[in-house]
């Protein structure tokens, strides 16, 4: 009998064969698919070092189809399933697939001209670009050989600025110059330098100034193989006439008006506090931009517009217009899952928000959540209820606003209560935190909470359950009353901060917690319990570090970005020390669920190769270490309906154990055997404002059995799970 592993391999090869038909079958005879462009930079190594193949490729006018991996794009194959009859089937595969790029030889010559022009822009004069085309099996392979031309180092730079004040401003900023003596002459750097001059003068009162008043003149004949550069500021713009000349004067701020919808109830002192544009001040474009960032950062207005206009000799008036946005609303989220054993899980949440609760841009949120796991016709179940409230102030408490030139960090105060009732115990968690959040450049977002407090109390602890854990004191120590006091934070980076990105993007998130170190300074003053733990109010405090890091990349391709490939890698680790022998249970990691290993329900996999802990009637598997990778292909089917196929791999592990050869402990020799694998498919309803998702995950490899799952058993008992969710899993 064939092994399950072999059957899986055969199935995968069969699927691969299904999409491995020709990628050129639909092309008319005598035409070719552009298979590849190759760029090779020849000549001097120093020149090659300063040129990028990827940069040059952007100036080639015809690009081949994009490939996923190892030069393969399955949607090219799908498109070629067309019969050429124009039937409904043809329209279907052409909509799902990707049409081959038909090679156009006429675009090769214009691409060479494009590349040569770009090389001049980069400072390579007299460059040569050669091409060759190889035709093979109705495919065209184009090769571009680039021979960079001569470069001229700048021997000297002189400034011809007749206005003494403008000259002094320019000379005072030469340390930040983007064109310096010894650099190679090139238009790209000169354009950046003209932008720098524009910024200098518009920060210092020159309201009418633009980069077009900056002129560059280079002499490459006076000194052999070198350039003498002259920089001048003229009264007429580039391409203009002398009759277009103006006098470069400095302007001051006149009247400043702040306008907003009268129905928007907001305190005037808050609006004035955010404004940095003051009457009588010298006009400064940077102050204008910073004021815009401060009003936008409050996220209270649908639009922020700052309009400036001349209002007399050397005077600029300013109007700040703030349009009303939706101040309050509700958000609903729901996740649900079930598996082949009949266990259901439902996790609803409801939250209310008000972005102007005290009429000063204060955000108030009130949230309710639940998590219910049960089986029909079975009295045993797990219930979790939570409530949280938070308020965020548009200021950095304890520091004056004048220290922040752009958007002001917000100060956050949060309080929550969580109630958990399980067959084994009842647990109450009270949490509070205080901290700050801010962003820089619209790409980096930070949260820092210098104070985080969690108080955990257990009630109705089943004696049999606790005794059953006695053979593993490490696990048993996680189930006790405790509290932790520490700090935490989050660093988030994204290349696209829009709500629904339309282009390929990347984001990463680092979250960390540190607890107990401050309290440990007072250990000599604290009583000690029977386990040697120091206590406050007859309760031991927790001491640990915890961090979780994730990377997510999403690629869009095909017509109007109807296809995308998303991949995620994440890892987390927690380590207890000092006053704690184990990580607090609520701070441990878990896998499985609608946004994790979708072949398992939440907390139903791991740690490591451990089987389901029979002490838990409802799954509750956790660990100190988590590692996971996910890949998902998403595609539009029709209307608002989209589909997805995915694969997930990963698990959780314990870093320490009280028992020998614990299958849940992370060990290098067993690492690959302890990875859980699943594949799956899903269907999504994308309503633009919300995405509803239904995914089915099927186990390929179950580490608890250390065995591959036979394809014939993929939809059998305890081998798959269904998940309903709102939004993408990552």
UniProtKB/TrEMBL annotation:
Endpoints of the signal sequence: 1-23
Start and end residues of each Bacterial surface antigen (D15) domain: 368-728
Keyword set, alphabetical order: Cell outer membrane, Membrane, Signal, Transmembrane
Xref: Pfam families: Omp85
InterPro entries: Bac_surfAg_D15 (IPR000184), D15-like (IPR039910)
Localization in the cell: Membrane
A cellular component term, taken from the record's GO annotations: outer membrane
Top-level taxon: Bacteria
Protein name, as recorded: BamA/TamA family outer membrane protein
